Amino acid sequence: MLIPSQALRITAPLDEETISGLHAGDEVLVNGVVFGARDAVHIKLAELIRTGAKLPFDITGQIIYYVGPTPGRSEHDVGSAGPTTSSRMDFCTPLLISRGLKGMIGKGSRSREVTEAIVKYKAVYLGAVGGIGALLGEKIVHAEIVAYGELGPEALWKFTVKDFPVVVINDVYGGDWYKEVKAVVSEQ
Amino acid sequence: MRKIEVSRIKDEVKRLWMEANFVLPDDVMDALGEAKKRESSEMGREVLGKIVENALIAKRKRVPICQDTGIPVVFVFAGQEVQITGGRLEEAIEQGIGEGTWEGSLRSSVVNDALARVNTGDNTPPVVHMEIVSGDGLKIIVMPKGAGSENMSGLAMLKPADGKNGVKAFVLKQVENAGANACPPMVVGVGIGGTAEKAMQLAKKACARPLTEKSREMAEFEGELLEEINCLGIGPAGLGGRTTALAVNIETAACHMASLPVAVNINCHACRRKEAIL
Known about the structure:
The complex is a heterodimer.
Chain A: E1 8-12, H1 16-20, E2 27-36, H2 39-50, E3 63-65, H3 93-98, E4 103-106, H4 112-121, E5 124-127, H5 133-137, E6 140-147, E7 156-170, H6 177-187
Parallel strand pairs in A: 1-2, 2-3, 3-4, 4-5
Antiparallel strand pairs in A: 2-7, 5-7, 6-7
Chain B: E1 2-5, H1 6-22, H2 26-38, H3 42-61, E2 71-79, E3 82-85, H4 89-103, E4 127-133, E5 138-145, H5 147-150, E6 154-158, H6 163-178, E7 186-192, H7 196-208, H8 219-229, E8 245-252, E9 260-267, E10 274-277
Parallel strand pairs in B: 1-3, 2-4, 7-8
Antiparallel strand pairs in B: 2-5, 5-10, 6-9, 7-9
Helix pairs in contact in B: 1-4, 2-3
């Protein structure tokens, strides 16, 4: 995995054709724009949707990366930036998917509601390696805060990423790579 | 009485807090290298390679190993013949953490109150565990603790009849639930005995123990648990393989005849800690 010559390259925002071509276990390099958001922003997004207010960004086709980076050398740079645990965002993810969100990058398993929404609305969950933030931070070539700067590391970010390495965990066909790999060792 | 000035303690905590976040301990680096040699899954080997590469980047660039620079957990072992002068010990530790957070460009991950949730901006206040020991030294261990692994902690008040098998079943269940959330390969700290809060403190202490130090009484059980954990198939980053844990560290204590407390506290592969003796 994570070998540039062997991986598939995709560019965000995502279209349905790209998503349909992704299968659990595929090694993928993400390019383009991804939005950085974690716990506090998800609580705010859920509230905006509940009250019928406008979201601070157009969510159609976008990828959200669950991350709270360390400060970079400038305001358009980040330091360490690896994935946080995705399941804490499960409460809000089906709602965001139904509003057009197409991809999520994080670590750890998702709830049944999330994996069902992934199949129903054709989205994809991508797993990044947790705990390698120094390396992954180098794949973010530009960063800016879109909203909620007062939340500090929990702000809503817009990142431009170059060859950001992930593995497809949950695909539109109901595949779940975290479950599949566990079965491999128990069969041996 | 040997006198130690609080300003020295502050400076030392600041240094340890930054260093722990930039440099992975040698024993952890060695364990990752060894695990890579033994790992049968190609994906698992690749992930272990990336973890080592990440640690080298962090050290060279002085960038945090992980963006979750952790809640600071500080262990202080104060010799009973030491007198701390010039101020309050806890205040000095707090100042060291705050200054290190700014100087090291660490993330501020601590909120002031579990429900109000306002970020304090400098990772204060730290969690401090103090112990009075013999002698005239002062040992400080700073352990940046990430929430991904910390959130997968668990406590079970087992029945004495559950015995060793009950302990094993509980530890395996906790590790299985933790999966990729805890950033495997993990270091599994287990506290057996004491009371509910004592068991959890033992588990945390077990997490802080170097991977090369085995328990005198529990070494065999540690090995047995490690073997079974590494058959779960979770693997590095949860992407499959045999390296789900680098070590299982057990600490034990006496307990009530009616109790068998077991606590599990997991550390991620970024098993960060740095100590100094003043």
